[in-house]
UniProtKB/TrEMBL annotation:
<feature type="binding site">
    <location>
        <begin position="113"/>
        <end position="115"/>
    </location>
    <ligand>
        <name>NAD(+)</name>
    </ligand>
</feature>
<dbReference type="InterPro" id="IPR001557">
    <property type="entry name" value="L-lactate/malate_DH"/>
</dbReference>
<dbReference type="InterPro" id="IPR001236">
    <property type="entry name" value="Lactate/malate_DH_N"/>
</dbReference>
<dbReference type="GO" id="GO:0006108">
    <property type="term" value="P:malate metabolic process"/>
</dbReference>
<dbReference type="GO" id="GO:0030060">
    <property type="term" value="F:L-malate dehydrogenase (NAD+) activity"/>
</dbReference>
<keyword id="KW-0816">Tricarboxylic acid cycle</keyword>
<dbReference type="GO" id="GO:0006099">
    <property type="term" value="P:tricarboxylic acid cycle"/>
</dbReference>
<feature type="binding site">
    <location>
        <position position="77"/>
    </location>
    <ligand>
        <name>substrate</name>
    </ligand>
</feature>
<dbReference type="InterPro" id="IPR036291">
    <property type="entry name" value="NAD(P)-bd_dom_sf"/>
</dbReference>
<dbReference type="Pfam" id="PF00056">
    <property type="entry name" value="Ldh_1_N"/>
</dbReference>
<feature type="domain" description="Lactate/malate dehydrogenase C-terminal">
    <location>
        <begin position="145"/>
        <end position="309"/>
    </location>
</feature>
<feature type="active site" description="Proton acceptor">
    <location>
        <position position="175"/>
    </location>
</feature>
<dbReference type="GO" id="GO:0005739">
    <property type="term" value="C:mitochondrion"/>
</dbReference>
<feature type="binding site">
    <location>
        <position position="115"/>
    </location>
    <ligand>
        <name>substrate</name>
    </ligand>
</feature>
<keyword id="KW-0560">Oxidoreductase</keyword>
<dbReference type="Pfam" id="PF02866">
    <property type="entry name" value="Ldh_1_C"/>
</dbReference>
<protein>
    <recommendedName>
        <fullName>Malate dehydrogenase</fullName>
        <ecNumber>1.1.1.37</ecNumber>
    </recommendedName>
</protein>
């Protein structure tokens, strides 16, 4: 099920999912336009059976029996707006959707794209709401940070003249600015950069969202690359659920790897979600410094998220 399927991310994401032989049933939910999006996609000659659901009354039906939920619902960032500006609106949307998931598909893998992933609110909301219903499983709730990895792979490949499909750069930490930590020292194939180039590359990966917001000049934030990243993450989840071994993706999850309750690291995925958190691995001195800075900032945003959640009760 895609929640927010008619949006800038939701539509191309739904197209990519419809195009995959891994998907048998594709359920599209939004507060607007889903009948049209579903009718359009249903004419594509691939296996997935597409159904559109629109408005709060149809949310339960959109989720019943679903194995994987992907959530690009929300309000995107506009120029001049920080992720924090979006905080209240998006957190409230996510709270409603979390409640519906807990009631209708408590066993499903939950992949949250909606901001603010930078603050842990969406992941936290799922934890709180699912605990309320006694169905919380930390191995099944993911804040999708794949776009950071996709960007890191693309930028490294561009600088080194490599095939981007063969490059893999783990990205850990959070999902905003300085909390995004590309681990270039752990990249495959192995790559090396002089210190100034490494700093510039790291900064570009951390600020890549703004590059797109500026270039779109008022027409929204990253949608196509995010749809690609969301689909990549979903396919990895589906592959692992189908028994494929050795599937690893980074995501923002409940974590014990650092002092932060929520932290993104590479995860080994399996039939039941996270099989093993692979942790931070061996860091370079440069990366260790980035992690130390990010932990301070992440702890602040986790606290802010907790305060927000406490006030909403
Ligand atoms: N995780 C990431 O890397 C990443 C990257 C880019 C954008 N985002 C976030 O993804 C979200 C979507 O971005 P977009 O550009 O597609 O925005 P958009 O405005 O084009 O689409 C959002 C969709 O959500 C729908 N929606 C709103 N309230 C809803 C609700 N209660 N239930 C279901 N659907 C609802 C809207 O009708 C719309 O179709 C935003 O929160 C944005 O900030 C995340």
């Amino acid at each position: 099920t895609v929640l927010g399927a008619s949006g800038g991310i939701g539509q191309p994401l739904s197209l990519l999912l419809k195009n995959s032989p891994l998907v048998g049933e594709l359920s599209l939910f939004d507060i607007a336009h889903t009948p049209g999006v579903a009718a359009d996609l249903s004419h594509i000659e691939t296996r997935a059976r597409v159904t559109g659901y629109m408005g709060p009354d149809q949310l339960n039906d959109a989720l019943k029996g679903c194995d994987v939920v992907v959530i690009p619902a929300g309000v995107p960032r506009k120029p001049g707006m920080t992720r924090d500006d979006l905080f209240n609106t998006n957190a409230t949307i996510v709270a409603t959707l979390a409640d519906a998931c807990a009631r209708n598909c408590p066993e499903a893998m939950i992949c949250i794209i909606a901001n603010p992933v930078s603050t842990p609110v969406p992941v936290m909301w799922f934890e709180i709401v699912m605990k309320k219903y006694g169905v919380y499983n930390p191995n099944r709730v993911f804040g999708v940070t794949t776009l950071d990895i996709v960007r890191a792979n693309a930028f490294v490949a561009e600088l080194k003249g490599l095939d981007p499909a063969r490059v893999n750069v783990p990205v850990i930490g959070g999902h905003a600015g300085k909390t995004i930590i590309p681990l270039i020292s752990q990249a495959t194939p192995k790559v090396e950069f002089p210190a100034d180039q490494l700093s510039a590359l790291t900064a570009r990966i951390q600020d890549a969202g703004t590059e797109v917001v500026k270039a779109k000049a008022g027409a929204g934030s990253a949608t196509l690359s995010m749809a690609y990243a969301g689909a990549r993450f979903t396919f990895s989840i589906l592959d692992a659920m189908n028994g494929k071994e050795g599937v690893v993706e980074c995501a923002y999850v409940r974590s014990e790897e650092t002092e932060c309750k929520y932290f993104s690291t590479p995860l080994l995925l399996g039939k039941q979600g996270i099989e093993k958190n692979l942790g931070l691995g061996k860091l370079s001195a440069f990366e260790e410094k980035l992690v130390a800075e990010a932990i301070g900032e992440l702890k602040g945003s986790i606290k802010k998220g907790e305060d927000f959640v406490a006030n909403m009760k």
